[in-house]
Design brief:
Layout: H1 5-18, E1 24-28, E2 36-41, E3 47-51, E4 56-59, E5 67-68, E6 76-81, E7 87-91, E8 96-99, E9 107-108, E10 121-124, E11 130-133, E12 138-141, E13 149-151, E14 160-167, E15 170-175, E16 180-183, E17 191-192, E18 205-206, E19 215-220, E20 223-232, E21 235-243, E22 254-257, E23 262-267, E24 273-277, E25 282-286
Length: 287
């Protein structure tokens, strides 16, 4: 009997989800009730979450207890961390805020540009050098957010899904077309890299073109981790892929069935992949 394409896809997905996974669920926090919109684990102990009306939360005990931070800003939709003390967030009115004391207090950087009303993704390679983006604008700072310089988007890219700054003028971008790009000259030239999504044999639909990022990327040297949340046959899925050659090739993506509805995804410098769920809980994966 000849199997239909749907049946073949379902069989492949079943095998993928039941295979020998290298990434394991390490932490699952309880849901919160603070109208939080995104968050991440920096390492096993430290976590960050931000959301409505500038609310910020941080944890130093794997999410068992969440602490409030002093902040005054609009709603926040994107966050990231350089280490367990240095945090960044962006959101409504294109505001950018920074904490250097583990989320206890936050200060304002200069707002980013672009026509889109809110910041979506933010990434710093050190305390001075970083990128921030809205859906259709990308900018770079070399003075800790005091000034932002607009960078051209890659040819053919209309939306920015996530960014990863790796140094002055250098970094990576994932577009709404599942394409991965790299620049070494502040966006004057972009190199189109291989896409880990192309390795899939099942119809994965990432959660793209939303206020929160549906894909995250962290690169250090030639090694990197890309994670994305989406659906396959109406099932909520986390995809994780790795590269060892700067994005020229990717490992066959691991697929993990999610037990909760995802809102966003992040990858930390310590190698933690975090799914922020719609019930305001965090699920963390690590090798």
């Amino acid at each position: 009997m000849q199997l239909s394409r749907v049946m073949v896809a379902a069989l492949i997905l079943t095998v993928s989800l039941s295979g020998c996974a290298q990434w394991k669920e390490k932490v699952q926090t309880e849901n919160q009730h603070d109208m939080l919109y995104t968050g991440m684990f920096i390492d096993k102990a430290h976590a960050l979450a931000v959301g409505r009306a500038g609310i910020t939360r941080h944890s130093i005990d794997s999410g068992k207890k969440w602490l409030g931070g002093t902040n005054s800003s609009m709603c926040l939709y994107g966050c990231n961390a350089l280490d367990e003390k240095t945090y960044f967030a962006t959101g409504n009115k294109k505001q950018v805020i920074i904490s250097t004391n583990g989320g206890d207090s936050w200060s304002h950087a200069t707002n980013i540009g672009g026509s889109a009303p809110l910041g979506k993704s933010i990434s710093f390679s050190n305390v001075k050098t970083g990128w921030a983006s809205s859906k259709n604008w990308l900018g770079e700072t070399t003075d800790g957010g005091r000034n932002w310089t607009e960078m051209p988007l890659p040819p053919g890219a209309s939306f920015v899904e996530t960014i990863c700054a790796t140094g002055p003028g250098t970094g990576y971008l994932v577009s709404e077309m599942k394409e991965v790009f790299q620049t070494s000259d502040s966006g004057a030239h972009w190199n189109k890299l291989a896409s880990p999504f192309a390795e899939l044999k099942v119809p994965f639909r990432p959660l793209f073109s939303r206020d929160n990022q549906g894909v995250a990327l962290y690169m250090t040297g030639d090694s990197g981790i890309l994670a994305s949340v989406g659906t396959i046959d109406k099932r909520n899925i986390l995809l994780i892929a790795e590269t060892k050659d700067g994005g020229k090739t990717w490992s066959t993506p691991e697929l993990h069935k999610l037990k909760r509805l995802p809102r966003s995804v992040s990858v930390s410098a310590k190698g933690y992949v975090s799914v922020f769920n719609k019930d305001e809980s965090l699920t963390a994966y690590a090798r």
